[in-house]
Specification:
Length: about 375
């Protein structure tokens, strides 16, 4: 295990007293949980699966990047229930990038880049478990200066609001300084009330009155958190409500960011002054920087973190409460145990997900792994 290897090396270099303390700490952490024994069960093949969501009737809905949405049944994926393939492209990092249901399954939301590359969040009413195409409307758009770093993940928080992740706009190194600029939605996580507007184009959604920057001149009211490079996948812990963000690094550091359920928002995750815990290109650490709860470099196979979920299912007892994530290039499923914002254990589930682009948390808490090559797999007990 990685933790043991590291601790052995560290212990060798430390004086006795310090090493005893360290050993005790690590022993406690690893004794808490046996390493979960899991297998990946391929349950379906998709065309470039990119995102998914728990849908009505306990079903899992899967989005394909080229623009289709299909429902996972007992025998794989059904015919598309939505097809916007004429309205999006898959050049760069574009496409259909996120899907979400509201908590009542009354509305379905899609997040995609349109033919101009503009990030677009659309809403459909859902009735009797089915999309109502005639009800489609655009909730929010954001122009994108480059075809990469679109973010695009969307999730409902435990507060019932819709959270939207946007990358810094792209290119490389955040050339426009969007990460730290509160006057743009790029490089942010947003929080909106999608059905709280008056239904007109002037107010297609509402802004929760307790959003952190509503009273700040020159700051966008939609912003919940900032200083993000490409928060490709984020999630809320279904058990605690804590927020976990996988923010893809520029060239050296991949990171997981964390905020407690009690957060009032406004976290500055550092980009592009910081990459992980490290000043980026001579940047100065912002006074309010919230450092990642975990980072890893690219000395291994990893090159692009894929944020996952804290496991709250029942099938794998030893995985309960662990955050499961991966890396698009590495593909190994890894875990973090996080207590009060501190990582208390790191694990490796010993299974390969391929080019892992996303995780999906089903209604029963079980986790699915999407590989861009087509595999839709469930994490099962070994
Ligand atoms: Ca950061």
């Amino acid at each position: 295990m990685k933790v043991r290897t590291r601790s052995s090396a560290i212990i060798g270099a430390l004086v006795l007293a310090a090493s005893l303390t360290l050993t005790a700490t690590l022993t406690t952490a690893s004794a808490d949980e046996a390493q979960a024994q899991v297998v990946l069960t391929e349950v379906a093949r998709a065309q470039g699966p990119s995102a998914g969501a728990a849908g009505p009737d306990g079903k899992v809905w899967i989005a394909e990047r080229a623009g289709t949405v299909r429902v996972l049944g007992d025998y794989g994926l059904g015919e598309p229930v939505l097809d916007i393939s004429a309205e999006t492209t898959t050049d760069g990092e574009r496409g259909l990038l996120g899907v979400a249901f509201d908590p009542e399954f009354a509305h379905f939301y899609i997040s995609y880049t349109d033919l101009e590359g503009t990030s677009t969040i659309d809403e459909f009413a859902v009735q009797d478990g089915e999309l109502q195409p005639d009800t489609r409307r655009t909730v929010l758009t954001q122009e994108q200066p480059y075809p990469n770093h679109n973010g695009g993940d969307i999730k409902f928080g435990p507060d019932g609001y819709l959270y939207i992740a946007f990358g810094d706009g792209g290119s490389g190194g955040d050339p426009h300084g969007n990460g730290q600029n509160l006057d743009t939605l790029l490089g942010k996580i947003l929080r909106i009330d999608p059905t709280g507007g008056d239904g007109t184009d002037a107010a297609p959604y509402a802004i929760p009155s307790d959003n952190p920057f509503v009273a700040e001149e020159g700051a966008k009211d939609e912003i919940w958190a900032y200083g993000l490079r490409n928060p490709w996948r984020f999630s809320f812990d279904a058990g605690t409500g804590d927020l976990l963000i996988g923010d893809v690094g520029q060239s050296e550091w991949e990171e997981i960011d964390w905020a407690p359920a009690s957060s009032k928002g406004g976290e500055n995750y550092g980009w592009s002054s910081m990459e992980g815990n490290h000043p980026f290109r001579g940047g100065t650490e912002p006074a309010n920087h919230v450092p990642p709860v975990h980072e890893y470099d690219r000395s291994g196979l990893g090159c692009s973190v894929t944020g996952g979920f804290v496991y709250r299912g029942e099938a794998i007892a030893d995985l309960a409460g662990s955050y499961v994530y991966s890396d698009y290039c590495d593909g190994t499923l890894r875990t973090l145990d996080i207590e009060n914002g501190e990582v208390t254990g790191e694990g490796d589930l010993g299974v390969q997900g391929g080019e892992v682009i996303s995780f999906v948390e089903a209604g029963d808490g079980e986790l699915y792994v999407l590989a861009i090559g087509g595999a839709v797999s469930r994490i099962d007990p070994a």
